[in-house]
């Protein structure tokens, strides 16, 4: 009976092919981890901006309580309070559009890495059994060796089939995941850009409104001249030279 089962089966795909696909997945995993880390930093900045703006609004309100005629402080306090609210909304948007989706995306990699470990174990089992068969073959075709060789050939069939299946599965699943990454990530990128556009547009509208309120408080006041006068007073108090 012939045990040359390789004649009727396709050859096992190259190990280099799997190694190349694993490297691609590793690069995507590293990049996504870094993106999540930097995204958290950006969100934390918005959180701190919201706190700072609210604190400044509180300081301005305290200033107004000491000087009832300081109407500009009231206007600016309201503006800074609104700035804080906008920064807080942007923080919440980043959590929904970037942080959580990237966390979910990162949860896929342990599953993929599990496939790699399973593949590597099957490969080791296959190579170990093949090495044993080679040693027996080197000892010659004695009766006991022939029996051992036939038994090991039977053992090799399911081991090689399992390794072959895991090998081909990686070559199917990994390229599909890698090539499909932008289908998942592009909506995230678009959502982040839209969030930033919304935030800065709201800020522009807010400060345009504030500027109009400040200039319309007293039609006779030259706002630019008032600002320059204030800057001159500040310079006069400074102990350093320009």
Task: Describe what you observe in this structure.
The chain has 242 residues and is mainly alpha-helical. The protein folds into 2 domains: 44-106 and 185-242, no CATH class; 114-179. The chain has helices spanning 15-66, 71-106, 108-138, 143-179, 181-216, 223-237. It starts with 14 loop residues before the first helix and ends in a 5-residue tail after the last helix.
Q: What number of domains?
A: 2
Biggest sheet overview: none
User: Which structural class best describes the helix and strand composition?
Assistant: mainly alpha
Q: What is the strand tally? A: 0
Helix content: over 70%
Beta-strand content? under 5%
Topology:
Elements: H1 15-66, H2 71-106, H3 108-138, H4 143-179, H5 181-216, H6 223-237
Helix pairs in contact: 1-2, 1-4, 2-5, 3-4
Summarize this entry quickly.
This protein is mostly helical and 242 residues long. It has helices spanning 15-66, 71-106, 108-138, 143-179, 181-216, 223-237.
């Amino acid at each position: 009976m012939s045990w040359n089962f390789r004649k009727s089966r396709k050859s096992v795909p190259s190990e280099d092919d799997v190694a190349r696909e694993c490297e691609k997945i590793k690069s995507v995993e590293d990049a996504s981890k870094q993106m999540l880390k930097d995204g958290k930093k950006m969100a934390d900045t918005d959180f701190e901006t919201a706190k700072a703006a609210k604190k400044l609004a509180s300081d301005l309100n305290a200033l107004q309580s000491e000087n009832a005629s300081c109407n500009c402080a009231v206007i600016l306090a309201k503006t800074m309070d609104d700035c804080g609210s906008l920064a807080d909304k942007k923080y919440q948007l980043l959590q929904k559009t970037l942080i959580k989706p990237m966390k979910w995306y990162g949860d896929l990699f342990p599953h993929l890495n599990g496939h790699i470990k399973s593949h590597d174990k099957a490969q080791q089992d296959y190579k170990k059994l093949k090495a044993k068969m080679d040693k027996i073959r080197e000892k010659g075709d004695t009766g006991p060796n022939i029996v051992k060789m036939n038994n090991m050939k039977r053992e090799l069939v399911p081991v090689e089939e399992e390794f072959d299946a895991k090998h081909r599965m990686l070559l199917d699943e990994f390229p599909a995941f890698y090539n499909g990454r932008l289908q998942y990530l592009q909506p995230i990128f678009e959502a982040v850009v839209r969030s930033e556009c919304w935030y800065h547009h709201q800020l522009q509208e807010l400060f345009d409104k504030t500027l109009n309120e400040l200039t319309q408080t007293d039609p006779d006041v030259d706002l630019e001249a008032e600002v320059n006068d204030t800057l001159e007073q500040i310079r006069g108090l400074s102990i350093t030279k320009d």
